[in-house]
Design goal:
Layout: E1 6-11, E2 16-23, E3 26-34, H1 36-40, H2 47-69, E4 78-84, H3 88-105, E5 109-113, H4 114-120, E6 133-138, E7 143-150, E8 154-160, H5 166-176, H6 183-191, H7 215-227, H8 233-259, E9 263-267, H9 274-287, E10 290-292, H10 304-315, E11 337-338
Parallel strand pairs: 1-4, 4-5, 6-9, 9-10
Antiparallel strand pairs: 1-2, 2-3, 5-11, 6-7, 7-8
Helix pairs in contact: 2-3, 4-10, 5-6, 5-7, 5-8, 6-8, 8-9
This protein binds 5'-O-[(R)-(carboxyoxy)(hydroxy)phosphoryl]adenosine and zinc ion.
Residues 14, 139-141, 167, 170-171, 182-185, 188, 268-270, 272-273, 300-301 line the site of 5'-O-[(R)-(carboxyoxy)(hydroxy)phosphoryl]adenosine.
Length: 339
């Protein structure tokens, strides 16, 4: 029997009902039930539908995760749950389930920051040491450059988007191109058959800081489509995607160089993007920077990332949360867990 703590992680911040189980830094189970198809006809996530779907899915997802990990509930040493940021009604389903389990099992509970959890999934690659990294966190709600030294204690935000997040830009452009929701994976697929140099879309905010801006790019794509209604959609998708990838990587790699940090960690839903991953590898090889990207399935929302951050908190001696901790729709990135 391993002496490493067995951690259950619950994630319900948006449209994925997810439970992950880890022992120390070893992933044992990662089960996800998505309500994405129920939202697709509305072109975005409907909070009420998401909450109801979480309520329905939670018992099954939990049982399946325990089966996959081959553990019993009584073996769990600590429970982690996303406490924000996210849709409040959706978060409350996860935190209620987690608090019920913590009370019944008499185990500690950690209310965790979804954003830190995206980065913490990197810890599940046991072949790596947890050395400092520059984090590029790119999701539906956030695009930030972060100095990561100890995820359980906090991070330093170097820059962030001043308007749309990268994932939000993918979703909005997908809508303009009449693609499926969510837009990121749809653009990723379509762009594979397009020419990424076909249209020279603007690279927003080429300033010397670490901030991003994607609203100008969105306007440029919209204007282009109005002027050239018969444009090849795959070329528009590929050229748009290239503009996003270019600005994200230019600033992230510059942060590594300027801060003298030799590791780049890319996390969050947009980190699943195949072009971002390939181009990041090429640029990191050139700059002699180690690239750390979780497997694509662990980039989008999942419970394993919550369990991973909780595991780092437990092993780092962080105090658990008290029952009744707050769920928050917005949370600063530098607060990994809260009381
Ligand atoms: O991290 P995530 O699953 O949820 C949030 O915390 O927001 O990120 C979701 C975002 C969506 O905007 C989605 O379109 C985008 O990640 N995304 C992608 C890809 N897969 C998901 N964007 C680009 N390429 C992908 N393959
Ligand atoms: Zn997320």
């Amino acid at each position: 029997m391993s002496s490493q703590p067995l951690i259950l992680g619950i994630e319900t911040s948006c449209d994925e009902t997810a439970v992950g189980i880890v022992r120390g830094r070893t992933l044992l189970a990662n089960v996800i039930s998505s309500s994405v198809e129920e939202h697709a006809r509305f072109g975005g996530v409907v909070p009420e539908i998401a909450s109801r779907a979480h309520l329905e899915a939670m018992p099954f997802v939990l049982q399946q995760a325990l089966r996959e990990a081959k553990v019993a509930l009584r073996d769990i040493d600590a429970i982690g749950v996303t406490a924000g940021p996210g849709l409040i009604g959706a978060l409350l389903v996860g935190t209620s389930a987690a608090e019920g389990l913590a009370l019944a099992l008499d185990k500690p509970i950690y209310g965790v920051n979804h954003l830190s959890a995206h980065l913490a999934v990197d810890a599940l690659d046991e072949s790596r040491s947890l050395q400092p990294a520059i984090g590029l966190l790119v999701s539906g709600g956030h695009s930030s450059i972060i100095e990561v030294t100890d995820l359980a204690k906090g991070v330093r935000v170097l820059g962030a988007t001043i308007d749309d997040a990268a994932g939000e830009a993918f979703d909005k452009i997908a809508r303009l191109l009449e693609l499926d929701f969510p837009g990121g994976p749809a653009i990723d697929r379509l762009a594979k058959s397009g020419d990424l140099e076909a249209i020279d879309f603007p690279r927003g905010l080429q300033s010397s800081d670490y901030n991003f801006s994607f609203s100008g790019l969105k306007t440029a794509v919209s204007r282009y489509l109005k002027q050239a209604p018969s444009a090849v959609k795959a070329d528009v998708a590929a050229s748009f995607q290239e503009a996003v990838v270019d600005v994200l990587l230019t600033k992230a790699i510059r942060a590594c160089t300027e801060k003298g940090i030799e590791s780049l960690l890319i996390a969050g839903g947009v980190a699943a993007n195949s072009r971002l991953r390939a181009e990041a590898q090429r640029r990191c090889d050139l700059a002699k920077i180690e690239l750390r990207t979780p497997p694509a399935a662990l980039c989008t929302d999942n419970g394993a990332m919550v369990a991973a951050l909780t595991s780092l908190a437990v092993s780092g001696g962080v105090s658990p949360s008290s029952i009744g901790f707050s769920t928050l729709s917005t949370v600063p990135l530098d607060q990994p867990t809260w009381a």
